[in-house]
Write a structure and sequence with these properties.
transcription regulation; Alpha-Beta Plaits; six-stranded mixed sheet; alpha/beta; phosphoprotein; DNA-binding
């Protein structure tokens, strides 16, 4: 219902307008009456009507003065002025100044009905536009959140240049992160089985408005908080405070906290330290705040440094080179054995360290190790390790799953590339410029990769397949036309008719002339 206020110093006129027209049937509701301009302004202040019908002749403040006040104070208010004949020209000027319309006394109800219908349509359009604008604002805000989240995920994993990082941080008013920071990595478990506990935790954190902090979700599993500025020195206090907030809301949380780091490189280092601290919960227990120093104290039992080529290992895992992965695992086990550390806790921590790093290869697909194999299965498996043989079995089982995951992704990607390449070749095989290079460029693939997956999926090399299509097309033309050999050669993509004849005999077993005679 559109809310209506009637303003007139004569009671009878207000009654005639209020009772003489079926307002509710037309989508309006009379919410009040006023006998003067001042009374009307007070009413508008508290009730905010959308349509005001006012007489032009009133003592102290006439209808035009009232309209001026209304338009200066409120937006989207519609005013209709009621006037006698002698003020007709005056009323016309009022319309030019913004008054919606005017009615002559005595008020014609049919005319009032027409004006009401026009105003109702106008207000309806205004409301629809407001809803569209609000929806657009919400969408823009949601898109902005997604972009920021994606940026911070790449930033902490050091998958972004310093120049781009600085520009984005200044754009998001987060440049303090480049000075000094402390990182909190938070793993949340909901005791009420909430399907999205991390989002609930994020809402709680932002409700409490802890100053000089930057928070975002990392691959839908961990919540990351960076303390910057003066809050850096209070990082542990903030972690403890937030842990209490989560506990009060029945959210079990383990928080890993880094040391204080500086500069662009310090951002990634702080994140890595916080993740290491979080991984120590396997040994130290969950639902608490664990510092990077706590993590180091557990690792101090290792007298020697384990040498391991992490980049090569992760590359082999991501690209499905299983033989190298197994070699790396054996080297890793040997390194643990050579350290001469006999404590089971150290063995479990080292197993968790390699497993966590292997799990990081899933992040680019928006997945995590916990999502792939199940959080409980992962931690139960770690807790069950009692020996190096247990460690080897655990790592081989889970690395197999990760290898299968990557191989599955690559198979899907390979199938897609081959499908696109086949489609392109089938449409363009008669083009003499068609080659492996042009096909790869058109399906946005690397030449060697396309060549390899094409042969695997089709059973022929890409060039062999193109030749097969061209010979098949030439046979069709030989059977259905009287074209000369050189004409057919040109039509199926050969620049040289002699070369075409050689290829034809090689694939069909007879010369073009012999085929035509048959």
């Amino acid at each position: 219902m559109i809310k209506v206020l009637i303003v007139d110093d004569e009671k009878l006129e207000r009654v005639l307008i209020s009772k003489g027209f079926p307002w509710e049937e037309h989508g309006f509701q009379i919410i009040g009456e006023a006998s003067s301009g001042m009374e009307a302004l007070e009413f508008i202040k508290h009730r905010r009507p959308e349509l005001i019908i006012t007489d032009i002749n009133m003592p102290h403040m006439d209808g035009l003065k009232l309209a001026e006040h209304i338009y200066s104070l409120y937006e989207k208010v519609h005013v209709i002025i009621i006037t006698g004949y002698r003020e007709f020209e005056y009323a016309r000027q009022a319309v030019k100044l913004g008054v919606e319309d005017f009615l002559l006394k005595p008020v014609d109800m049919n005319e009032l009905s027409d004006i009401a219908a026009r105003i109702k349509m106008k207000i309806g359009k205004e409301k629809a536009h407001e809803q569209e604008v609000e929806m657009l604002k919400q969408n823009v805000s949601a898109d902005q959140d997604i972009l920021m989240e994606s940026f911070f995920q790449r930033l902490v994993e050091q998958r972004i240049t310093k120049e781009e990082a600085e520009k984005k941080l200044y754009a998001y008013s987060c440049e303090a992160l480049l000075d000094s920071c402390c990182c909190l990595s938070i793993h949340i478990k909901d005791e009420n089985s909430d399907t999205e506990p991390h989002k609930k935790a994020m809402e709680l954190f932002r409700e409490h408005e802890i100053p000089q902090t930057i928070s975002f979700l990392h691959y839908m599993k961990h919540m990351i908080i960076f303390c910057v500025g003066s809050s850096v020195m209070k990082g542990k206090e903030i972690a403890q405070e937030f842990h209490h907030i989560l506990s009060d809301n029945r959210l079990s949380a383990t928080i890993g906290i880094s040391g204080i780091k500086h500069g662009f490189k310090g951002i990634g280092t702080a994140f890595t330290e916080a993740e290491h601290a979080l991984s120590a919960s396997v040994l130290l227990g969950g639902n608490q705040v664990i510092t990077y120093e706590d993590y180091l104290r557990v690792k101090e039992k290792n007298p020697g440094k384990l040498m391991f080529d992490w980049d090569d290992f992760l590359f082999s895992l991501t690209n499905g080179i299983s033989e190298r992965v197994w070699t790396f695992i054996e080297d890793y086990i040997s390194g643990i054995r050579n350290s001469k550390v006999t404590e089971v806790e150290y063995l479990r921590l080292m197993t968790m360290d390699l497993t966590s790093k292997a799990g990081s290869t899933l992040h680019k697909y928006g997945d995590s190790l916990e999502q792939l194999i199940g959080e409980e299965a992962l931690y139960e498996g770690i807790r069950g390790i009692q020996s190096l043989d247990d460690c080897r079995r655990f790592l081989k089982d889970w690395m197999n799953l990760i290898l299968d995951y990557h191989n599955g992704k690559k198979t899907k990607q390979g199938n897609k590339v081959v499908r696109e390449a086949l489609s392109y070749i089938n449409e363009n095989f008669c083009d003499p410029n068609l080659s492996l290079k042009t096909a790869a460029a058109n399906v946005y693939s690397n030449e060697s990769y396309l060549s390899r997956v094409f042969k695997k999926e089709v059973g022929l090399s890409l060039i062999e397949y193109v030749m097969k299509k061209r010979i098949e097309e030439s046979i069709l033309l030989l059977n259905s036309t009287d074209l000369k050999v050189y004409e057919i050669a040109e039509k199926v993509g050969f620049r040289d008719s002699h070369y075409f004849s050689i290829c034809f005999k090689k694939h069909v077993g007879v010369t073009v002339k012999e085929f035509k005679q048959r």
